[in-house]
From TrEMBL:
Record's catalysed reaction(s): L-threonyl-[protein] + ATP = O-phospho-L-threonyl-[protein] + ADP + H(+); L-seryl-[protein] + ATP = O-phospho-L-seryl-[protein] + ADP + H(+)
Keywords: ATP-binding, Kinase, Nucleotide-binding, Phosphoprotein, Serine/threonine-protein kinase, Transferase
Organism: Schizosaccharomyces osmophilus
Protein name, per record: non-specific serine/threonine protein kinase
Domain AGC-kinase C-terminal per the UniProt entry, residue ranges: 440-523
GO molecular function: ATP binding; protein serine/threonine kinase activity
Residue ranges, compositional bias (Basic and acidic residues): 1-13
Matches recorded under PROSITE patterns: AGC_KINASE_CTER, PROTEIN_KINASE_DOM, PROTEIN_KINASE_ST
SMART domains membership: S_TKc (SM00220)
Family stated for the protein in its record: Belongs to the protein kinase superfamily. AGC Ser/Thr protein kinase family.
Biased composition, class Polar residues, residue ranges: 14-23, 41-53
Segments for region (Disordered): 1-29, 41-106
Domain Protein kinase: from-to ranges: 149-439
């Protein structure tokens, strides 16, 4: 079962952003031709069922089952989901050498930054320098082993591993445990990506970003023990609604939460690069939790965000605003990653990209949750990319089209400006976006205390680590969608592999720290 077939997108594009449209169009054709042989654009995933796995499974067969994707208890309900593209991930393809970088229209400082590979390659230096402890998170040596948990059921499946709902035996707390096969990661050249994912998860501590509790490894597998998002995927919740769309006020709520999550990631020095409904999970309270950071990019920077006190955007009211953009907007990276319909023009042009790609994806996301489709989707990849590069954003105008205000359309148009230097968010990052009149009713500091429009109907016994109740209602609440996940009360315990020390010299996963994180507010 292929869930997220990954493709490697070669440096097929010229690195000249001033390509003529016919020249670029030829290149698009080549690119499309190249990819058509190697990837599907939509893959099928299956909804999970609550049926427990047979208690007879031994550790070994259980782990083999994970590696081979042979879980028998997957429900065969196909749901169309979009795949992410990434470099260095496709079997049999060479890892990218140095990505092509167009430097013709960059400032000297930018070029200097790009020429230093340490700024855009995850090298051992960056990992050896990692520090995780913050004021609200304490990191210790790992305090659990695979035997500390019992498996409850499969939650989902990625390319090189699976995510299980597990229960910690000592305290009955539920977690989502991502178990990744080392052999698969090596084969698919995903080692650096999982190290990046662990780095981001370990460093992050934000209400809208999935929380990591433990990370450890055995001889054959890596384990990421995360907060269990009992509401499941936002994508599925969206697809359970008529027309797969939300009313504008609800869309505003989710766009606001996503903006805060992106703002935080940018402040931490990460570009997310894969925003889409499939990568947003819902906490049991209904609030979003951004997940799946394996396409994200940590960028080292020596400067800090600064306060802006001057008027910096059309909608600014001279309030001091945090500039989350300038301090690392000069850092460009060049991998071709993301999901076809969400990819920003500068990424297609292979002239390097910055944090501005995340604001582009916010525009696509907002459009999609309002209209049920993305704005540049073409009949094939070539057409989609061509639209992304050249087409204007059009808003459906037929009589039954969703009712979307001109203010909202204005925000979408500004986020989807093709020139990244003019795109909304390019001056002061999230502060620009938060000031747009579309968000005028959003109380940013109180957002996490609002009752979200979609509140998952969680069955008894399914509660995750924390509970929220008595929250103020968000506008246009959509009452209690049926929970996708049910749990049976008598679940068999299935032990996992024990953690085994690995000789360092042969282990490409030494950068994967075995840690336990204690977050402020944990019992
Ligand atoms: N913390 C979580 N709580 C609940 N379900 C989760 C959690 N994390 C992941 N899942 C489920 O597991 C699925 C697979 O998660 P994963 O992080 O591997 O993402 P992916 O996008 O499917 O894989 P890949 O990393 O290969 O792109 C998700 O789509 C989701 O349904």
């Amino acid at each position: 079962m292929m869930r997220k077939s990954e493709i490697r997108d070669k440096e097929s594009f010229s690195n000249d952003p001033r390509n003529s449209s016919s020249h670029l169009s030829d290149k698009l054709k080549n690119l499309f031709h190249f990819r058509r042989n190697r990837a599907v654009t939509v893959s099928t995933s299956y909804q999970n069922s609550s049926q427990p796995k047979s208690p007879e499974h031994s550790d070994e067969s259980y782990m083999e089952g994970i590696a081979n994707g042979s879980d028998s208890f997957l429900d065969q309900k196909p749901v169309l989901r979009r795949i992410s593209s990434a470099p260095d991930s496709h079997e049999g393809m060479e890892a990218p050498s140095k990505p092509p970088v167009n430097t013709s229209n960059m400032k000297k400082a930018q070029i200097k930054t790009l020429k230093n590979p340490a700024n855009y390659i995850f090298g051992p230096t960056e990992y050896s320098k990692r520090t995780y402890s913050g004021n609200s998170t304490k990191v210790s040596r790992v305090e659990v082993t695979p035997q500390s948990f019992e498996k409850v059921r499969l939650l989902g499946q990625g390319d090189v591993g699976k995510v299980y709902l597990v229960k910690q035996k000592s305290n009955n707390r539920l977690f989502a445990m991502k178990i990744l096969s080392k052999a698969e990661m090596i084969k698919r050249r995903k080692v650096q990506r999982v190290l990046a994912e662990q780095e981001i998860l370990t460093k992050s501590n934000h209400p809208f970003i999935v929380t990591l509790y433990h990370a450890f490894q055995s001889k054959d597998h890596l384990y990421l023990c995360m907060e269990y998002c009992a509401g499941g995927e936002f994508f599925r919740a969206l697809h359970s609604l008529p027309g797969h769309i939300l009313p504008e006020k609800s869309a505003c709520f989710y766009a606001a939460e996503v903006t805060l999550a992106l703002e935080y990631l940018h402040l931490m020095g990460f570009i997310y690069r894969d925003l889409k409904p499939e990568n947003i999970l819902l906490h049991q309270s209904g609030h979003i939790m951004l997940s799946d950071f394996d396409l994200s990019k940590p960028i080292s920077t020596e400067t800090h965000p600064r306060m802006l006190v001057t008027k910096h955007s059309t909608f600014s009211h001279d309030k001091p605003a945090l500039d989350t953009n300038s301090y690392f907007s000069v850092y460009r990276t060049n991998s071709f990653v993301g999901t076809e319909e969400y990819i920003a023009p500068e990424m297609i042009r292979s002239c390097g990209h910055t944090v501005a790609v995340d604001w582009w994806t916010l525009g696509i996301f907002l459009y999609e949750i309002l209209y049920g489709t993305t704005p540049f989707k073409g009949k094939n990849r070539h057409a989609t990319f061509s639209n992304i590069l050249y087409a204007d954003v059009n808003f459906p105008e037929y009589s039954a089209a969703p009712n979307v205000s001109s203010t909202c359309k204005n925000l979408i148009r500004r986020l989807l400006i093709k020139d990244e230097t003019k795109r909304y968010g390019s001056v002061a990052g999230a502060s620009d976006i938060k000031e747009h009149p579309f968000f005028r009713d959003i109380q940013w500091a109180l957002l996490r205390s609002m009752k979200p429009p979609i509140v998952p109907n969680i069955q008894e016994g399914m509660e995750a680590v924390s509970k929220t109740s008595g929250l103020p209602e968000a506008p246009d609440s959509i009452d209690h969608l049926n929970s996708q996940y049910l749990i049976s009360s008598n679940l068999p315990a299935v032990d996992m592999h024990s953690a085994t020390p690995i000789p360092e010299v042969e282990n490409p996963f030494t950068g994967f720290s075995s840690v336990t994180l204690h977050h402020a507010g944990d019992e």
